[in-house]
Write a structure and sequence with these properties.
The chain contains four helices and no strands. It is an all-alpha fold. It is rod-shaped and about 70 Å long. It starts with a helix and ends with a helix.
């Protein structure tokens, strides 16, 4: 399982830092902070979508078949001893 909490947490921390820095500055600083936050929100949303699509079940099923000898042709035909 992928650990997506760290990147999300990092983005959230930096978003708060950028917004805090831009507060009280001119409009160009706010524009840059807004752009960063839009991009960070998109990254976070993508990470949450990626969590829902977990390939572990498919990989586990194939691993069980390999251990069960279903893919011996790999050993015999592809991997030459």
């Amino acid at each position: 399982m992928r650990d997506t909490a760290a990147p999300q947490g990092t983005d959230l921390f930096v978003m708060s830092a950028v917004c805090s820095y831009a507060a009280g500055k001119d409009a160009s600083a706010v524009d840059l902070a807004d752009l960063f936050c839009q991009q960070a929100r998109a990254r976070i949303a993508k990470q949450f979508r990626d969590i829902r699509v977990n390939p572990d079940k498919a990989a586990s099923a194939i691993a069980k078949k390999i251990l069960g000898g279903e893919y011996e042709w790999i050993e015999n035909e592809i991997i030459k001893q």
